[in-house]
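Anyone have tokens for LysR family transcriptional regulator? Sequence:
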Amino acid sequence: MELRDIEIFLALAEELHFGRTAERLRVTPSRVSHAIKKAERRIGGPLFERTSRTVRLTPLGERLRDDLLPAHLRIQQAVDRAVAEARGITGTLRAGYTTPWCADLAYRAAAIFRDRYADCAVRVQEVRFDDPFGPLRRGDLDLQLCELPVQMPGLGDGPVLFREPRALMVASDHPLARRDRVSLEDLADVPLIRPSSDVPRLLLDLHVPTHTPLGRPVPPGPSYTFWSEVPALVAAGLGVSIVAVRAARYHDRPGIAFVPFRDGPTLDYGVLWPAAGQSPPALAFVDLLTDLAARNE
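Reply: yep, here.
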């Protein structure tokens, strides 16, 4: 088996889906099918059981996977070390994040990155909401996973990693909590909790707009310094907050509910980095982030 065919086999053994395997390896599904058929002819037996709904490894396929994985890992590590040396992927990479879901992605990427590039350390840290871009602008970070777009002097937007629908965080006994969906026009009837810090206008318009799309004013609610204050303010019935839909999995607690919006733009999360240029470690790390985010879609 050729190395590329081995990579296709191992990817399909993990994904158990021809389409996802093709997307992950950036090839066509027919290329995946051709490689598997060629491997089965070479070996002389079926490696996968295929139906219209499922793909499963045969016992023969399981043994081949278990035998190939350690050798393939050693080959990949050897290639990665050569790439790291050639590109200068050494030193320390410093990555920041602003939300728990960005943190999950950053830490997953950091673990893989350390295995690939042994000469490059990775530090991951939270970026406080009261100073959202200070560490990056001061040079304390090489890149940041956060909401995009950001228009700040000296900073540039990198690739968008994923797009998230929005929801309204409301008190569980609020009338809006009984709805399946809310509209941006509903914001005219509820006080919207606002950050007390100097947040860029573009982010404010996304998270705490002052007017609805039809021009109705949005009542200002109480302000906060740290995000942990927001669920408590909402549960107390003092205001509402616009959040990502997946916030319900990270910030749910008694007294609050999350109601998806039926209109309005998504919240886009991606990479922010210095506009002047990126280091080889930062470029390699973002390539890894992009790959991991695509697998989770």
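Residues 30 and 77 are 28 Å apart (CA to CA).
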